[in-house]
Automatic annotation (TrEMBL):
Residues 11-120 form the Endonuclease YhcR N-terminal domain. Residues 135-201 form the GH29D-like beta-sandwich domain. It comes from Ectobacillus antri. It holds the Pfam family Exo_endo_phos. This is DUF6359 domain-containing protein. Residues 473-757 form the Endonuclease/exonuclease/phosphatase domain. Gene3D superfamilies: Endonuclease/exonuclease/phosphatase.
Length: 773
């Protein structure tokens, strides 16, 4: 049971924020001025063109702008939202309001949720909470029990069963009642001293008296109210046919935007075609299809009917009109996937509910821009959604803390489809909304429209070689080995060209995913010297520098990755520019060179051990650490059934980052003014707990110094994100410049990409660091 602050106590916004910090979740009454609308964590606006009806923001002063003094308030669907929201009532901005609800974390800040009552200053009367009818209508068995309730204690519920408006002379609710025929239940709640509630309505159809329609089966939930039950004569027009069945959509929709009008019918060799009007008998099933369900059990289920009987009633029926997604039609929630753990079905605010409300339905996507390369047959796109969102040079949404950009749309395009970020479709895409592998996807009807090249080109680093400055790069070279059957000559030449021409031949390249000499042949080989030589020879043959390579081979199959491949981190370095420190000297920064971190630490079991190496440039020693932290396998998917999302792999990365930070701190504490550079594929984002832990108070993550639109090295499911980082000790940050070189993440191999990660290059003026010290 949630504790409550005394009912007679009315908190200011400041007091409410402090109360939440001190007590956590607690029921309370909060009073403040409406200052506008919450657009994101610590982001508020009084621009009415950006208002929606899902929340308000309140403060103790009507003109407050300090996010720390503002409280976001979630408005639940129903009377409270209708009466209080600023989209429909922009005149509310500046008004003082008293709200009863629960202090909880909302938009990552102390907020107010589950609001049950409101009262504006000036005497607007508080209302009795609306009656909840359970079940909330639909097709039921004869004799089904109906329950009425209101959250306002002491209220009396009056109801009717004939569709008439209830009054205080109507039936008084005292106990659940049963349904034996088709009825329309209307109910209201009354309490002395309060305004009467709104009238709640629910229509019930007794099974076999009227056929069930698709929207009854879909309901306003992710799980059908008919799950496991048999339904009869369910009617719809066929829209898309596949090997296992077909999608059909009702031609007589209801007026509730929260209920989908389409459903998948499981029936192999059905013999139907698009445009057939059919009637189906069968069992309603919540089916988890192709995806991650077996491994992580996070995929959502799709509602389907396992057909036992199928009748074609008519052919060549005109298909229902498609719902346009985006600014020209239905706005896609662009900030929140789910913020209530599925407790409230709210398609207007929660993107996961939005897409569920369109399950199986015909939708239309206009002016779609490709957000990333095709992968596994899927292409993510963006449309004009009527909002201003941060995008990369190619138009890819940028992942931010708390914002997974749910407005991204996935299109089933096929594995032979070639597309890169920034390309765009010249026509509209029409399809039905499906789901697999942790994402809602649009299954196109017919051929996709022509794709126009957006002109995006692979970059060349603006960081040029400098006589008096050292350049360091990090590059995940994606499962590279000397085995020609696993690593093609084309890839070898592509990597060599990228290092020479796109990266401008860095002095040191920390590489990740270097495999042993025979790749995934599991014969006990761990040495990678031939793999490195293959790349070094290609660079030299293309008139690049004569790099040398250093690593420490892992024990066989002890560092994770593909069995037999013995994936590891290592360094390429140009001996004409930097010297690999070999002599033992008390002035050295490392006790041995190179040295692996965590060799005796069980935290690093089945994980690539970071490798620290000491180099010298123009008489100054410095340390570079190449990292490849554990992968994100184990994290729930953003559009999965675990909400809020659980990052199962994160805690280990935090622990690994703690150990690497401790290693670096020991160098800094022992050797005054030492320069340490930590680089690599960290498998996490700059704002994440692991990267903040790795940084600690001794390092600066140079990726955080870049313009937001350039902060990405990887694109996953249409989200641009930083996985590859370069951090330097704080003493070197001012004299370091960095650039992620966008040559891979936005492209397919058909466009010349050579890895799935973009490399990052940094240039450091060690002389200035030394002088400043």
């Amino acid at each position: 049971m949630v504790p409550s602050i005394k009912a007679e106590t009315v908190l200011t916004v400041k007091e409410a924020i402090e109360a939440f910090k001190n007590t956590g979740k607690v029921n309370a009454v909060v009073e403040g001025y409406i200052i506008g609308y919450t657009t994101g964590p610590s982001k508020y606006t009084n621009d009415s063109s950006k208002f929606a009806d899902t929340n308000i923001a309140i403060a103790d002063e009507p003109g407050e702008t300090d996010p720390a003094k503002i409280m976001p308030v979630q408005l639940p669907p129903g009377e409270v939202r209708k009466a209080v929201n600023v989209k429909d009532h922009p005149e509310h901005v500046g008004k003082k309001v008293r709200l009863t609800g629960t202090l909880e974390l909302y938009f990552s800040s102390p907020g107010l949720k589950s609001v049950t009552a409101y009262q504006f200053e000036g005497g607007q009367q508080e209302k009795v909470q609306d009656v909840q009818i359970s079940p909330n209508g639909g097709t039921v068995d004869k004799g089904a029990t109906v329950t009425l309730s209101t959250s306002t204690e002491g209220a009396t519920i009056y109801y009717t069963l004939d569709g008439m408006t209830p009054t205080m002379q109507s039936l008084v609710y005292t106990a659940p009642f049963t349904i034996s025929k088709d009825v329309v239940v209307k109910a209201m709640a009354v309490k002395e001293g309060l305004a009467s509630s709104n009238i709640t309505t629910a229509a019930f159809l007794v099974k076999n008296e009227k056929p069930v329609r698709i929207h009854d089966i879909q309901g306003t939930s992710h799980i059908s109210p008919y799950e496991g039950k048999n339904v009869f004569d369910v009617e719809g027009v066929v829209t898309v046919v596949d090997n296992n069945g077909f999608y059909m959509q009702d031609i007589k929709p209801d007026e509730d935007m929260a209920t989908s009008e389409a459903i998948y019918i499981f029936k192999r060799q059905s013999g139907v075609k698009p445009g057939d009007l059919v009637a189906v008998d069968g069992e309603v099933d919540e089916y988890v299809g192709a995806g991650y369900s077996d491994k992580m059990k996070t995929d959502l289920a799709g509602t389907q009917i396992k057909a036992s009987r199928l009748t074609v009633k008519e052919s060549n029926v005109v298909l229902p009109s498609s719902i346009v997604l985006g600014k020209d039609g239905l706005h896609i929630p662009s900030e929140i996937i789910d913020n209530d753990s599925f407790s409230v079905f709210d398609p207007s605010e929660d993107a996961i509910d939005f897409y569920e409300s369109l399950e199986g339905m015909l939708v239309e996507v206009r002016k779609a821009v490709v957000a990333g390369p095709q992968k596994y047959g899927d292409v993510f796109v963006t449309v004009d959604n009527g909002t201003s969102e941060l995008r990369t040079r190619g138009g890819t949404p940028i992942l931010a803390a708390g914002d997974y950009n749910p407005e991204r749309l996935s299109i089933k395009a096929g594995r032979t489809f070639v597309a890169k970020a920034g390309d765009f479709f010249k026509g509209n895409i029409t399809g039905v909304v499906g789901y697999d592998y942790g994402n809602y996807r649009i299954i196109p009807i017919g051929q996709l429209p022509e794709l126009q090249d957006g002109g995006l080109q692979r970059e060349r680093s603006a960081i040029k070689p400098a006589i008096d400055k050292v350049t360091v790069a990090t590059f995940n070279i994606e499962n590279f080995s000397a085995n020609p059957e696993q690593t093609s000559d084309e890839k070898v030449q592509g990597l060599a060209a990228a290092i020479i021409h796109n990266l401008n031949m860095p002095d040191i390249i920390a590489v990740q995913e270097m495999q042993d000499n025979n790749g995934t042949v599991n014969d006990g080989t761990t040495d990678a010297s031939l793999s490195a030589k293959r790349l070094i020879d290609a660079i030299r043959a293309n008139k690049g520098p004569g790099y040398k390579y250093v690593d420490v081979a892992p024990e066989n199959n002890q560092d994770g990755g593909a069995p037999g491949a013995n994936i590891r981190v290592g360094f390429l370095y140009n001996p004409t520019r930097v010297q690999f420190v070999q002599s033992a000297d008390h002035k050295n920064l490392l006790p041995q060179n190179p040295m692996r971190i965590g060799t005796d630490n069980p935290l690093f079991n089945d994980t690539r051990k970071p490798l620290a190496a000491e180099f010298q440039f123009k008489g100054q020693n410095f340390v570079v650490i190449s990292n490849h932290l554990n992968s994100k396998i184990g994290d729930a998917t953003p559009f999965g059934k675990i909400q809020p999302i659980v990052l199962g792999s994160e805690s280990k990365r935090v622990e690994l980052a703690t150990e690497v930070n401790r290693f670096m701190k020991n160098i800094v504490d022992t050797k005054k003014n030492a320069v340490v550079i930590a680089v690599g594929d960290m498998n996490d984002f700059q704002f994440s707990k692991p990267l903040q832990t790795l940084k600690g108070d001794i390092m600066t993550n140079m990726m955080e110094t870049l313009p937001l639109e350039t902060r990405y090295t990887y694109i996953h499911d249409g989200n641009a994100q930083v996985l590859d980082h370069i951090l330097v000790t704080n003493n070197a940050a001012l004299y370091t410049k960095v650039q992620p070189v966008h040559i891979n993440a936005e492209f397919m191999y058909e466009h010349g990409k050579v890895s799935d990660h973009d490399p990052v290059v940094a240039q450091i003026d060690l002389k200035k660091v030394r002088k400043a010290s």
